Amino acid sequence: MNIKEKLDTDNIPQHVAIIMDGNGRWAKEKGEMRLFGHATGVESVREALTAASEVKVKYLTLYAFSTENWKRPKEEVDGLMDLLVNTIANEAESLNKNNVKLNAIGKIEDLPDGCRNELLKAIEDTSKNTGTNLILALNYSAKMEIKDAIKKIASEYKEGSIELDEITDELVSDHLYTSGIPDPELMIRTSGEIRISNFLLWQLAYSELHFTPIFWPEFKKEDFYQAIYEYQNRERRFGLVGDQLKEQKNDE
Ligand code: FPP
Q1: Residue 102 sits in a domain of what CATH number?
Q2: Chain mean position to CA 211
């Protein structure tokens, strides 16, 4: 039986987030330039998106460019931006054909004009689609996202439109870039690094974390299914003890 058939279709995570890591090391191992790794990584984006759509994962968030990535050599940053523009432009039609709705989180307003315009156009062109939501984290930093939320909440408090007691988990979530999107049940990071790297710090509070040694350009649909399979075989406790969970299940 292949791994996809083993999945419990009643327990598919609604939201999977991925830190796509290892493009540079994969390319280096092959004696190629880092940008070749990123370009090959686009194939894996397709694999992950197709796999997510096939098993009806509703939201797929991909960490494509962090605010820290601007510190990389200019040639790599420019190459990555070109790759993003070209990929978004080339894939827009296929996103529509597959009913994928594109969205983005991060400081989109600070992206280079070409990249921002192409992105906003693709978001608009796919806005009516009802299948998988593909969310690109671009020029994204979770600490910045939380700071922005704090600023918004503080100014609402100052204006008198909210009371201190109204600052709940839900209110904070509603002020994040991901407002309206459920938190990821599963976060995958490739390339063997075991870190969160400033990605969705608030939203990952209770997520299952899946770390795989595979470099992103080698990540295939089966690897996505494998991560979901392992997620389905873990016990999610949300701070409770195992027996309490069993009681909860019996009550359902
Ligand atoms: C991390 O590998 C990867 C990135 C910073 C960029 C990922 C971007 C893509 C795969 C293109 C995505 C395109 C779309 C449309 C989403 P790394 O360079 O940090 O690898 P290393 O750790 O081996 O150096």
Answers
A1: 3.40.1180.10
A2: 14
Pocket of ligand 1 (CB under 6 A): 20-25, 38, 41-42, 45, 62, 64, 69, 83-84, 87-88, 136, 191
Residue 146 maps to a domain: no
Other C-beta atoms lying within 10 Å of the C-beta of residue 159: 8
| Residue 226 Cα distances to 128, 180, 187, 210, 220, angstroms | 31, 28, 13, 10, 10
**Considering the entire predicted model, what is its pTM?**
0.94
- What is the span of the domain harbouring residue 96? 9-141+183-251
Which ligand 1 atom is the nearest neighbour of the CA of 69? 5
- 151 assigned to some structural domain: no
Render pLDDT for 94-132 as a digit per residue (tens, 0 to 9): 999 999 999 999 999 999 999 999 999 999 999 999 999
Closest-CA residue to 209 (of 232, 223, 188): 188
Phi, psi of 20 (to 5 degrees): -85, 100
d(CA 179, CA 187): 18
What's the gap in Å between 194 CA and the centre of ligand 1? 16
